[in-house]
Amino acid sequence: MVAELAANAVQASEFVALADSSNVSFSTLDTGISSGVTTAQNRLITDQASFATLLQTHLARSGGISIDPASVDFSTQSVVGVFLGNTPGTPSVAANIEYLSLSSEGVLYVRAKAVTTSNASAATPVTQAFHLVRADVAPGAIKEVVFHVEPQVATAELLTGQR
Hints:
The protein has 163 residues and is mainly beta. The protein contains three helices and eleven strands, in the order E-H-E-E-E-H-E-E-E-E-E-E-E-H. 15% of the residues lie in helices and 39% in strands. The chain has a five-stranded antiparallel β-sheet, covered by helices on one side. Strands 2-7-8-11 form a four-stranded mixed β-sheet, with helices on one face. The protein has a two-stranded antiparallel ribbon with strand order 6-9. A hairpin with a 4-residue loop joins strand 7 and strand 8 (107-118). The model is unreliable at 4-13 and 153-163 (pLDDT under 50).
């Protein structure tokens, strides 16, 4: 099962208070600026078939990085992904999942940031920043997911036409 969710409008202070109660360990499966997922989206993946499908799309543009869908044990783990979609490549933007937390009610809180990293080269006019992690939480323990993805600190060029 794949949950495709937009970022929720949760107040940052409220989000931190809710999310700090029970941190979930996670490890990075893949991160970078080139993904076949070209639209901004947040994902919770809870089974191997859905993960394999996501990887087909994601890896189409990632430069040959290989992730084995069997590397995640979906009886005890889930996959969380933040994909920023097509973004201007100057300056370069990275997606960074900072922490995951699970409430006693089964709400998984995901806090991530879109971070300006550097000026990109002219060879990368558009990027698709992403962060894909393996979370140590069983899919059955998750009843709801709340994503909070903070926007990047942008230059004036990135803000043109967006305000």
